[in-house]
Design brief:
CATH topology: Rossmann fold
Largest sheet: 7 strands, parallel
Strand content: 15-25%
CATH superfamily: NAD(P)-binding Rossmann-like Domain
Helix content: 40-55%
Distance between the termini: 52 Å
Order of helices and strands: EHEHEHEHEHEHHHE
Radius of gyration: 17 Å
Shape: globular
Structural class: alpha/beta
Number of domains: 1
CATH architecture: 3-Layer(aba) Sandwich
Length: about 250
């Protein structure tokens, strides 16, 4: 049976790179993004390079009805063996000024969407007796405090706890779950915010450069692979050692 990998928020950046590497390693990738055009373009790119092993799944993964439908469609393409909860938004704002609307939008996507995606996918894995792999994308902001990112950092810390807590309920079914907390990553979005992103973050990174999507994808592929049999409930920080120093680039 075809091995299917489901990944959210994968139209570009880290998610797209993970999707591409999964397809390169033989999985059929069910690729989600809320931006329909971006989602289809990303899927077309992967299909053209990897024998059509990608299906676009545009939609809002904070919507529970969409999550259920997407998981069912992915299960129809084959056995869901890998799920990557990558979709998330970053909302900046001072604690004293943060609004309820901002808070609800942030938690709907970062927390509710992730929680129920994993729930629906786990049900499929348990029903089919699949020894699956789940991966959550957190952030170093869930490990180390940052100004203007209190609410965002709270959601990312919660995802680390979700990873640890699910071990008790999912491991007996043969499902392993882990989490990656990326540091500063050079992507289309971060470069649009700062064209000199690599220079600025490279100046404060022990490795001399920020992370690239490929760095995160390499870690993700190992945690999702059959080679990983005993890493479970853990959060892997991929940041070149930056959290050991915590230096911020000059503005």
């Amino acid at each position: 049976m075809t091995q299917t990998a489901l990944i959210t928020g994968a139209g570009c950046g880290i998610g797209f790179e993970i999707a591409k590497q999964l397809a390169a390693n033989g999985s059929h990738v069910f690729l989600n993004d809320i931006d329909e055009n971006l989602c289809k373009q990303a899927a077309d790119t992967i299909r053209s390079s990897y024998d059509g092993r990608c299906t676009p799944a545009p939609g809002d993964c904070s919507d529970l009805g969409f999550i259920k439908s997407m998981v069912q469609q992915a299960a129809a393409t084959g056995e869901i063996s890998k799920v990557i909860a990558n979709a998330g938004i970053t909302t900046y704002g001072a604690f004293l000024d943060f609004t309820e609307t901002q808070f609800n939008h942030l938690t709907d996507i970062n927390l509710k969407g992730t929680f129920f995606l994993l729930q629906e996918a786990s049900k499929q894995m348990i029903e089919r007796k699949t020894n699956g792999r789940l991966l959550i994308m957190s952030s170093v902001t869930g490990v180390q405090a940052h100004s203007e990112l209190v609410a965002y950092g709270m959601t990312k810390a919660a995802l680390r706890m979700l990873t640890r807590a699910l071990v008790t309920e999912l491991t007996p079914h043969g499902i392993l779950i882990n989490c990656i907390a990326p540091g500063a990553v050079e992507t289309e979005r971060t470069l649009s915010d700062d064209p000199e992103y690599r220079k600025h973050w490279g100046a404060v990174y022990p490795t001399g450069r920020p992370c690239l999507p490929e760095d995160i994808a390499k870690a993700a592929l190992f945690l999702l692979s059959d080679q990983n049999e005993m890493i479970n409930g853990q959060t892997l920080i991929v940041d070149g050692g930056w959290t050991g120093l915590g230096l911020m680039p000059e503005s």
